[in-house]
Amino acid sequence: MSIDPGQTRETAEGATALEALAGALRHLAEGSSLDDALEAVADGAALAAGAEVVVLRVFDESTGSLEARAVSAASTSVAAELQGTRVAPSADGDALQATGDRLGLGVALELPIELGERELGRLQLFRRAQSFTATEQALGRLAAEHAAVALAGAGGNGKIVQPLPAGELLRLGGDALATGLDEERTAQEIARLAAQGTGAVGAVVWRLDEELQPYVAGAYGAEEEDERDIVEALAARTAFAVTSGSWVLRLGQPPFGALQLRFEQPLVPSDEVLDALTTFAARAAHALRSSERARRQSVELERSRALVAVVGQAIAQLSLAHTLETAIERIPELLGAERLAVYLLEPEEERLLEAAGRGLAGPHTRVAERLIELARGPLRGHEAMLIENARADLRLAPVREQLAETGIENVVGLPLRVREDLIGLLALYPPRGRTLTPDELALVTALAAQLAVAVQNARLHEEVKRRDGERREALEAEQLASRTLRSLYEISRTFAQSLSLETTLEALVHTFAELLELDAVGIRMPDERGEALVTQALHVRDERMTEAVRTILLRPQALSPRLRSLFAGGRPLLLDPQTARELGGAYGLLVPFLERGSTTAIVPVSTPGEMLGTLTLLSLDPARPLGEGDLELALSVAGQAALALENARLYQQQKRFADTMQRSLLPRVYPKIEGLEVGDVYESSARLDVGGDVYDFLRLDDGRLAVALGDVTGHGIDAAADMAMAKFVFRSLAREHPEPGDFLAAANQVVVGEVAPNKFITMLYLTVDPATGAVACGCAGHPWPRLVTPAGEVSVLEARGLALGIDPGQTYHALRADLPAGGAVVLYTDGVIEARRDGEIYGDERLDALLAAQAMLPAAQLARAVVDDCRAFTGGDLTDDCAVVAIRRT
Hints:
Number of strands: 33
Structural class: alpha+beta
Distance between the termini: 114 Å
Shape: elongated
Strand content: 15-25%
Radius of gyration: 56 Å
């Protein structure tokens, strides 16, 4: 089936145009005023020819000009501007072009209004773009002829005083009907024009049905309809017949209808009228056939549109279920088939299944399976399988019982093929006696072809969606696993890098919030008495919610027997409003949120023998609740968290022990010496062992300050013992040997005999006279001290000597310098200058720059500034123990 939408559109437009001109013709026939008739002609011409402005000008013999008597324009101002204007007639079209330019309409057409050889006026048509087609020009000429008829019959009072001759009216009416309107209105218009053109009291248009029986298609002014005259006239086989009271004209050859004209006193028509009637009948027959074709085309067009709609919807949705539902819904509208189904072959199993159906019951799928067998065998290559009287057809003998059980009488089977692959079947089961017309069969065949493609596309789309879904699920699972591993790594990394309980707790709450996309996470740990859970760390994702969330999650939660029993099995607890209300405390504050759809889970953080704390997981968005999967993941990470917390807690305990031992060997009081200000800072690294840094102060008998700062090799208990020995050596020898050289030599003798082989102690020994500022410095393998003037100048006291405990016969020399008033001398261990960041050391240059910049700080603040700058350089954690002593002369 092939329908040209353009042809159908042109037919519809032509019908509308001719209807407009027919309206103008009615004004002429009904004796309207000349102006009304001319206005009707102008309006009809505008609609028929597609003009934006139409001017009907009448020739005025007294002035020799053309006067605008009728104007059709969408703009009333344009119509008022043109109405009554006069132009001189010209053959070159200059006046016409000037009018078009003034209106801004570049395309113009001028047609003469003539009666015989006499020019009565001109019809001018204007529009903005696109030249007038041949059809539009022909319609314009027809409008000009209408205007000529109106002008020819006009009297001095502007009325049409002389009716049109029958022959002329019938000729014009035939022209107006040449293309036809819709079928019913065409028949009525034929009857009206024929009656008015001949003076008949009524007219009837008869059509013949498929059994050649006449029926009324349209009538005008006829009170009674008697088909006997028509039967007799058509039986006479003449083009024109006169019967009792009417004229009958055959329509078409062979006839498919007749035009019957009724008269009060029928006369034999004149030759002129008979010729006009014959021409009119031919035009009328053509119009009826055209309207009938237009109707059929309209029906087919509507069906085609429906077919396009079905396919379009299927393509738009790309859903197999929607595609089939649309087809099952629309086919009955197109064909009137109430029992139908779509069957699809399963790609892998080659099994036929009903995918969608309507009006069917019983084993109809078995009937469809037989049709598939025929489509693969005897009827292979057929686009449609038509089987009337299915129960008697031998091809369906294997399913005769199923036919009887389902009540199927006729079958129209349409294989669904994509290329050469059979993917299913569209089956219609009309009642006996109902057969599809060729057009209907062509339509449903085309629908089946398109449906097959749509089904295949939908299947492929759904397969792609399924695979995309599987890939997406796999990706989400992989991302979840990655987040979990990243979280575990983050916890482990934090533990390994800092070994700080506080840092580990902060890392835990942050990691859980990011891992599970939570609004807030808090971790509570038992207080010292084990009676309440106290929040130790809290992370809130949205800063705007921090204050409100902190009010709830920072509140302690009583560690009641009920709560202990809930966590006895080590499982997470998903809070509901009732449980939260029962537990009270901080959990009770969550009740309003839980009642609005928020979710909160309490996850125990436990080792096999002890509950270290609980994690509170809070999701405020009802659309993003915590589920079982989240809780299992949280419990898994909480196990790693428990290990990290336990290690951090043990580390803190051991660190406190090591620091306590370390600090027990450091001076607890400073000697009070007027004129000198002493400050010191000691900070240990992240190691759990006791470090080797030791220093002490002593007031000598002569009033000088003696300071010793040393670094024992190794760490732990042995280092602590050596530190204690070094401190004892300083305290016991400094007063007997106050000068640096003598002190270091005596100390070396003691250390050589006390320390283990391959061990030694580096040491600085320095005296400062508060009165004179004299500084004496001795060095045994230790980093050199810095002398800082009030102006920020830094110099190095480069005293040299071998570390203590290596060679018993060593001698040491003192280096002397003057410490100005306001100046400072700074001693330090190698943990300061050897602190590292990414392989880079802190170094002497950074130390000197800091001391120069902070030269005027008090002694304690200056020592603190050195350690803080060193810590900032390493990024937070010291890589070795740091000891700094600063002495300022006031």
